[in-house]
Amino acid sequence: MDKTSSGEAQLKLRLCKRCKHHYSPSSNIPTSCRFHPSFFVCRRHDDQKRYYELGPDDPTYAAKFYDCCGAEDVEAPGCTTSFHISYDEE
Ligand SMILES: [Zn+2]
Ligand SMILES: [Zn+2]
Q1: 34 contacts 77 by C-beta, under 8 angstroms
Q2: What distance in Å separates the CA atoms of residue 33 and residue 16, rounded to the nearest whole number?
Q3: Three-state SS across 57-72?
Q4: pTM of the entire structure?
Q5: Residues 45, 55, 58, CA angle at the centre, nearest 5°?
Q6: Which domain of life does the UniProt lineage start with (predicted)?
Q7: Ligand closest in space to the Cα of 81
Q8: Which ligand is nearest to the CA of 72?
Q9: Is 59 exposed, middle or buried (0-12, 13-18, 19+ CB in 10 A)?
Q10: Residues less than 5 Å from ion ligand 1, measured at CB
Q11: 78: CA distance to ligand 1 center in Å?
Q12: Residues 9-21: pLDDT tens digits?
C-alpha cells in the first residue's frame, strides 16, 4: 500500500457566520475576524457624528456608511476584530 499523506491538508474549515470567510479552528485567534459591529446604513450622517460631509451638489444617497465607524464603502475592511464564529456555536 502506498498511501499519499494528504490527511493534514484536508483539515476541516469552518464558515464564519459573521464575515463569511472560511477558517480553520486551530488558527482562530482574537484578531482573525474583521467585521463591522453595526449595519451599513443609508442616511444622512448625524451632525454629532460627522464622518463625511455631503457637498452641496451631492445627492443624499451618497451618504451610505457603516454606523459603527463611518466607513463609506460596503467592502471596507471591518473596524473591529474578534474570533470567528462558526454556525455551530453561539
Ligand atoms: Zn465599522
Ligand atoms: Zn469571521
Answers
A1: yes
A2: 8
A3: CCCHHHCEEECCCCCC
A4: 0.64
A5: 85
A6: Eukaryota
A7: 2
A8: 1
A9: exposed
A10: 36, 66, 68-69, 79
A11: 5
A12: 556 899 999 999 9
